[in-house]
Please model this.
Amino acid sequence: MAIDTKIWTGPGRPAVFLDRDGTINEEVKYLGSPHQLRLIPGVAEAIARLNQVSIPVIVVTNQSGIARGYYTEDDVQDVHNYMDKLLADHGASVSAYYYCPHHPDAIVKKYAVDCECRKPRIGMLSAAAAQENVSLSQAYVVGDKRSDLRAAVNAGARGILVRTGYGTKTEEELLHESEATGAALVTNIVDDLAAAVEQILSQLNQSQPQSVKPPKFASTYRHHRPELGQHYPH
Ligand SMILES: [Mg+2]
Ligand SMILES: [Zn+2]
Model:
């Protein structure tokens, strides 16, 4: 494992946005309880590496299971609290969790919103970027679905597809499309989050000046829910 020596501080610093299901934790259809939560091997250690160099790690997750009535926002909070515990066991933490509870075809009517936060739209990314004082153009979005990759493109960030969760299925789809259209496959694809972080840190170490400021990593737990009907700025 490479040693990460640079410390990232100040405005315009990079950030790593992580999809949750299939990227951080093993994919379970509509995960609504801490009992179903299993971290993918190597994930906590990878997040800890980002923590060590003060790169904010922000979870952005579509949770249409709330809109579908499978579980509640409180259940999602419980899952994130437990995820914090599992990560803390490895000295890792995330700066913030953002989730979208909406779906246009919601069973629970108050969530039946064609919102700006559901990926591939960028409401969660832009809200988080403002809150965490990071630059989307310096940011990475890591996920296992096309909606994650599209959100990255829509936000002007760099997308990385992991082969965990639905990632191998997504990769196959992209390969088939590439063959069908003759267009080169330009998606950045790695095995898992640990490999993604390895790549991110090596790219950043090559491309950015080193900061001499001491690390100021905000580890306070925040759980963001969008106000209903709120439209995030693009
Ligand atoms: Mg996912
Ligand atoms: Zn939403």
Q: What stands out?
A: The mean pLDDT is 88. The pocket of zinc ion (ligand 2) is lined by residues 100, 102, 115, 117-118, 226 (CB under 6 Å). The chain is about 35% helix and 15% strand. The first strand starts at residue 13 and ends at 18.
